[in-house]
Q: What sequence folds into this?
């Protein structure tokens, strides 16, 4: 009886630890970004991804932005096929890069996505424009096999590697938990339609 | 050596790592591309710090070790510390100077970039651009208001009216918009553009709320670069409500679009770009400064530590051959001449160690040669000593002052004096040798002043020497001067080894050997007589030739005896026959006194002739003793046979015989031995003839060794007569030496001769009262020891283990 009690306590402790580990792993890269929506849809024979995030910039980042430093936000999604015998196979990988820059001359915020530019009057508008995407084609459905399980690794973050040289000073520190680390990661299970 | 190499490797590795990191650091500034180094600067920084710490630890360890070595007084540590210090200083000082200058330079440069005036100018420029654009916008907005009012007055809006309005106002395009931004009417604008685009939502909203709004659009590099639509100002104004009541929400808006002059836009954009750039720089200013200064500092630390380590290693490297050399010198000074290690390098230091090793080897070789020479010399010396010691001749070496320097055992034996005890004294100081010393001295002087022909540096002379015990020795003495030795050489000559003799030079050795052999003619090799003035060492070699003289005397006597016998014996028989014939013829004719006279005279003649005949016979016997025929015989039987002749003496107790039993048979000539016994007994009887209590004893005995082995068979004759005179005793067996008033003196000589033939030992001695050498003489003893035995059949006397011991046939042994 005493033994079972001990075992019970032990299992409880183990569970608690597991839960804590999950929470910690979820929050480790989630600074400043809240993922409001992340879902997949299928249309036109393709697997599409939709996401929407709310970005809250740390003061240092916002100040740099105010001073005219262009910031790059990168959304990346990878479709992985689970393999029990080997590393997961990467079926597709897509990424989008938004560039946000402040224009002091007109007091506007400019968001660029590829060759497309938009001008926004406020930072919040600009950020919301740069932090959501709909109908983002991830992969052709034809490449997706039935009877396989897939996962989608999604990440959205501030890309500090595209900052000007001197600004990157000390940003790549060990662990990457500095103020400039803004981003979120999420893993999504994708069930193949029956 | 191995540990230092390992240390060298470790240090080199650490220094190399540090240098590589620093290099990477420096490189990071020249390749600004990827920004990897900027991103990982902190990480690199700490890595460098840790390397620096490692270097510190190593330097501290090495330093502590050096200091500990110096404390212990280990050889060479001071030199090492000095060298390391110098090298470290050489590395440190320029590093410090460069660091200081660079630090100042970097700080000043970075400060100079961020000039307040530049910042102000940029701000002003930006503000200027902004004002200008704002002015454009405000102007267009006013125009839009005006246009809106006009439209409101006109009530109806036709495209034509709009066009007219546009021209009046001077805008490039004018449109009438619905409240939702939809273009209702439009005028102006390029043909290519088609319908004007809708305004931005926020602009529309603002216009609806506040009546008018304006914005500068497409002010960017891309629009400027494109040939089409460039930057433009857009203004919206709400058309005021007229009396014609419109439905709420059914508002109209006038939109005017005016392009911004391209030059103005370009300049404004340039200012904006510069401003952004400046702001970015300002943001990164501290970081830059930190990076530069940190890099510099780290570089300095690493460089200094590397310099110190390198200094220690180099110092070690430089000091090692010196230490090797110094160590070798110390060892050589301590007498260790083993092979010295060589420092394998081609420079002068390596050459120095090589030369030193060569030198040491040469010194060692030279020492070895000297030692070999010494050993040879010593061997020669011991050889010479042995030769001198075993020489039968006596050798005495005198030094320059004429004192005895070296004496060999032969000299001691011949002179019967412990001469070695008299070393350092003159020969004349020794009692009983004064005469000899004087003679020798005179002879040496004679040699020096007027040498005889044929003798240039040596002389030969025989001396008679009377010893304390009365015996007279005949010495054949040779003298020579030793070749001159230098005084200091003579002083050096005295070796530390306990040799009895001084080491003579090889020439002297040769000479001494030659002289001891006594067969060499005088040597002709002479040194120049330049050193004559200085008294020289002298060599004296002498032999006891008493025996030889005695033997010569015996031989001479034998010859005399033979001739006398020959010459005398022949007339004796005619004389005797003549005398007897005279008596025979005249006896009858004479009478009375004459007859008596005749008879007496004839008897006298016959007697004397017979006596003479006996004498002659004895001489003849002595001279022509036939060779002994050695056959086995019983000595006891022989003794009995001879004793039978002395019946009277036996009867009155004058003669006694005590013969040993079971006497082994010896090899001998019966006739000769009979004569020997006869002679001995007769001699003894003659000796005691005058004494009433005279007693003669004939003994035979067997001498056996410790283990019962047979040594000799002895025949002894003892009497209690007056004994031998001291003079005679030595030469008792020479012919014509006798104690008797009448006698030829040949009796014992014959005995001696026969004894020699038999290989027997003959001894004659006086008996002293109480067996003490200095007691009064109570008699004489003559003994004969036979050592040649007949091969006896087993079981007979002597036993199976009776081994005949061969005894040397010494001529005489005299006590």
A:
């Amino acid at each position: 009886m005493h033994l079972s009690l001990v075992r019970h306590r032990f299992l409880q402790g183990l569970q608690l630890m597991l839960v804590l580990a999950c929470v910690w792993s979820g929050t480790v890269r989630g600074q400043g970004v809240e993922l409001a929506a992340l879902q997949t849809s299928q249309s036109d024979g393709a697997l599409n991804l939709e996401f929407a995030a709310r970005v809250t910039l740390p003061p240092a980042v916002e100040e740099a932005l105010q001073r005219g430093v262009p910031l790059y936000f990168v959304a990346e999604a990878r479709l992985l096929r689970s393999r029990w015998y080997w590393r997961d196979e990467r079926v597709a990988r897509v990424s989008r890069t938004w560039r946000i820059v402040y224009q002091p001359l007109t007091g506007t915020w400019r968001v660029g996505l590829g060759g497309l530019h938009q001008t926004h009057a406020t930072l919040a508008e600009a950020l919301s424009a740069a932090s959501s995407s709909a109908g983002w084609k991830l992969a052709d459905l034809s490449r997706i096999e039935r009877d396989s399980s897939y996962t989608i690794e999604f990440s959205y973050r501030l890309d500090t590697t595209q900052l000007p040289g001197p600004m990157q000073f000390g940003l790549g520190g060990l662990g990457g938990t500095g103020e400039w680390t803004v981003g979120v990661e999420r893993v999504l299970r994708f069930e193949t339609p029956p | 050596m191995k540990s230092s190499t390992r240390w060298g490797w470790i240090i080199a590795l650490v220094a190399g790592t540090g240098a590589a990191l620093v290099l990477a650091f420096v490189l990071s500034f020249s390749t600004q591309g990827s920004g990897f180094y900027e991103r990982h600067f902190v990480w690199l920084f700490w890595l460098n710090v840790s390397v620096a710490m490692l270097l510190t630890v190593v330097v501290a360890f090495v330093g502590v070790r050096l200091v500990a070595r110096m404390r212990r007084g280990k050889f060479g540590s001071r030199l090492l510390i000095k060298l390391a210090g110098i090298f470290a200083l050489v590395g440190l000082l320029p590093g410090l100077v460069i660091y200081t200058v660079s630090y100042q330079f970097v700080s000043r440069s970075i400060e100079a970039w961020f000039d307040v005036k530049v910042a102000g100018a940029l701000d002003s420029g930006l503000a200027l651009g902004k004002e200008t654009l704002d002015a454009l916008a405000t102007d267009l907005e006013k125009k839009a208001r005006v246009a809106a009012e006009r439209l409101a007055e006109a009530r109806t809006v036709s495209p034509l009216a709009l066009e007219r309005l546009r021209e009046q106002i001077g805008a490039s395009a004018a449109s009438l918009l619905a409240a939702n931004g939809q273009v209702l009417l439009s005028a102006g604008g390029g043909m290519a553009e088609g319908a004007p685009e809708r305004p931005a939502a926020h602009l529309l909203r603002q216009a609806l709320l506040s009546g008018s709004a304006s914005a500068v659009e497409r002010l960017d590099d891309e629009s400027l670069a494109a040939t089409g639509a460039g930057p433009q100002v857009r203004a919206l104004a709400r058309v005021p409500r007229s009396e014609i009541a419109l439905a709420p929400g059914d508002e109209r808006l006038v939109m005017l679009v005016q392009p911004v002059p391209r030059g103005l836009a370009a300049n404004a954009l340039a200012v904006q770009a510069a401003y952004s750039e400046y702001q970015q720089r300002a943001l990164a200013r501290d970081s830059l400064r930190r990076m530069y200064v940190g890099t510099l500092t780290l570089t300095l630390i690493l460089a200094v530590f590397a310099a110190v380590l390198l200094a220690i290693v180099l110092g070690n490297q430089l000091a090692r051959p010196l230490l090797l050399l110094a160590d070798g010198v110390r060892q050589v000074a301590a007498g260790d001449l083993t092979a010295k290690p060589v420092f394998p390098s081609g420079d002068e230091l390596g050459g120095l160690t090589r030369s030193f090793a060569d030198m040491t080897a040469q010194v060692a070789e030279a020492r070895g040669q000297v030692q070999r020479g010494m050993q040879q010399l010593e061997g020669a010396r011991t050889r010479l000593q042995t030769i001198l010691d075993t020489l039968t001749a006596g050798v005495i070496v005198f030094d320059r002052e004429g004192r005895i320097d070296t004496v060999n055992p032969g000299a001691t034996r011949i002179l019967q004096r412990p001469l070695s005890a008299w070393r350092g004294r003159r020969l004349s100081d020794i009692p009983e040798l004064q005469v000899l010393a004087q003679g020798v001295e005179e002879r040496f002087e004679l040699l020096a002043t007027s040498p005889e022909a044929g003798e240039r540096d040596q002389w030969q002379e025989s001396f008679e020497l009377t010893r304390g015990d009365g015996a007279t020795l005949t010495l054949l003495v040779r003298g020579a001067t030793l070749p001159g030795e230098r005084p200091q050489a003579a002083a050096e000559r005295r070796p530390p080894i306990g040799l009895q003799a001084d080491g003579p030079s090889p020439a002297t050795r040769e000479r001494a050997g030659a002289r001891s052999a006594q067969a060499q003619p005088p040597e002709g090799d002479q040194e120049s007589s330049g050193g004559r003035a200085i008294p020289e060492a002298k060599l004296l070699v002498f032999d006891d030739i008493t025996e030889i003289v005695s033997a010569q005397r015996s031989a001479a006597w034998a010859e005399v005896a033979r001739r006398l016998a020959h010459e005398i014996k022949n007339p004796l028989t005619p004389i005797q026959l003549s005398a007897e014939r005279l008596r025979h013829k005249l006896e009858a004719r004479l009478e009375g006194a004459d007859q008596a006279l005749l008879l007496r005279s004839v008897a006298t003649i016959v007697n004397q002739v017979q006596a003479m005949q006996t004498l002659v016979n004895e001489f003849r016997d002595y001279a022509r003793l036939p060779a002994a025929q050695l056959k086995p015989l019983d000595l006891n039987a022989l003794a009995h046979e001879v004793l039978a002749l002395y019946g009277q003496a036996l009867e009155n107790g004058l003669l006694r015989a005590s013969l040993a039993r079971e006497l082994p048979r010896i090899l001998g000539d019966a006739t000769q031995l009979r004569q020997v016994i006869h002679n001995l007994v007769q001699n003894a009887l003659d000796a005691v003839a005058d004494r009433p209590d005279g007693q003669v004893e004939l003994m035979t005995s067997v001498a056996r060794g410790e283990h019962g082995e047979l040594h000799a068979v002895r025949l002894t004759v003892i009497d209690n007569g007056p004994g031998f005179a001291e003079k005679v005793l030595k030469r008792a067996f020479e012919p014509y030496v006798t104690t008797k008033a009448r006698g030829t003196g040949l009796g014992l000589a014959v005995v001696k001769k026969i004894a020699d033939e038999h290989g027997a030992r003959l001894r004659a001695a006086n008996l002293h009262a109480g067996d003490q050498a200095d007691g009064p003489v109570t008699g004489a003893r003559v003994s004969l020891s036979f050592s040649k035995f007949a091969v006896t059949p087993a079981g007979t006397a002597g036993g199976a283990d009776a081994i005949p011991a061969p005894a040397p046939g010494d001529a005489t042994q005299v006590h």
About this structure: The longest helix of chain A spans residues 2-27. The helical segments of chain A are 2-27, 59-66, 123-130.
